[in-house]
# Entry
Amino acid sequence: MNTKLRALALGAAISVAGTATIAAECIAPANPGGGWDFTCRQIGKILFDIGQVDQPVQVTNMAGGGGGLAFSHVVNERGDDADLIVAASSATTTRLAQNAFAGMTADQVRFVGAIGADPGVIVVAADSPYSSLTDLTDAVKAGEDISFAGGSAAGGFDHLKVLQVMKASGIDDIKAVKYIGVDGGADAVTQTIGGFTTAMTGDMSEIVGFIQSGEVKALAVLTEERVPGFDDIPTAREQGIDVVAVNWRGLYVPKNISDDQFSAWADKLQAVADSDEWKAAMEANGLAPFTKVGGDFQSWVDGVVAQTVELSKEIGVIQ
# Structure
């Protein structure tokens, strides 16, 4: 599979050959549109607009393998390219932890930063008897028939959010937690509103309309601090459950660039995070503040990957 990915990546690289020399390139591991493409185009534009790069950032779309094609290309062909950044998200680290990239591992690149996130949430129907996250976890502990709907398959990020919450609340047998994967967040909310599941696990962007219409109540947002504009929704941490689970938007860089080059990209990304332009982009696209750059972000990613491996083994997604 690695050989096939390398061949496809070479073809993608050839397709952009012959363009003008540029200061930097951002690979979006997907077709135009969607989160990774947004990350490259918005961050790339702002880097130039605020003077962090001398020339516009070239965006290269390299779809394939759920991000695996781009990852393979970077590892095998661009391992010391200091002018290359690659869009990443929680899906990237989840797939790496679950060996979805043909044996490739997260330590083959360096994660340089995240500067925004779609917050994870746990919601129930408006008429649910549960009014807090601890109400819900206590019900699970008591053996009540509690089920969760999410927009990812079993073992995906929505499922893992629930497992993190349950584990942090003291529930050891996480295999017993009932999870139903459906086709996207809207379907998951509908399942919960209709009474087919007890709760829904997903991202803030998926449930804003349902909150505004009064069809659901959010028991917790899985961020470090409350989300601006949704200040009445408490964090899990406030309720004694130490879980932060967000679909972060960020970048990784080739592993073999120097520490100084890595730090330079971290500084540039921090400058984007601090800019009015990025704050406007977050507001326009429903993202919450979530800024971790440099070594701090790399250490955080290492912990997330280790936790994902542990949870995935417990539920049998990987051996």
The two ends are 20 Å apart (CA to CA). The longest helix spans residues 294-314. The domain at 119-239 is CATH 3.40.190.10 (D-Maltodextrin-Binding Protein; domain 2).
